[in-house]
Amino acid sequence: MPKYTRIKKIIMRYLDEYGPSNTRKILEYVNEISSTGITSMAMVNVLSKHRNIEKSHSERVKGYTGSYEVCVWKIKSDS
To answer: Which residue, of 38, 48, 50, 51, has the greatest Cβ tally within 10 A?
Structure first.
């Protein structure tokens, strides 16, 4: 079984149910659902290389140490 197959299914289910979402929200959801979890670097790698997912845009998020940009991901449309 290829690496991260279950994680990819969880991500696709999340994006299908909730629509476009940023990397942090997807990461939190996957780590809640999955028993093994995934690191943020691996998550970005999975998202960027998945053939049915595309980067929509970036958004600024405020954190404890300041603000930073995260990518928003969505399921590719068939057009």
So the answer is: 38
Question: CB–CB of 7/38 below 8 Å?
Answer: yes
pLDDT tens track, the chain, 79 positions: 578 899 999 999 999 999 999 999 999 999 999 888 899 999 999 999 999 999 999 999 888 889 989 999 999 986 5
The DSSP string of the chain is --TTHHHHHHHHHHHHHH-SEEHHHHHHHHHHH-SS---HHHHHHHHHH-TTEEEEEEEEEEETTEEEEEEEEEEPP--
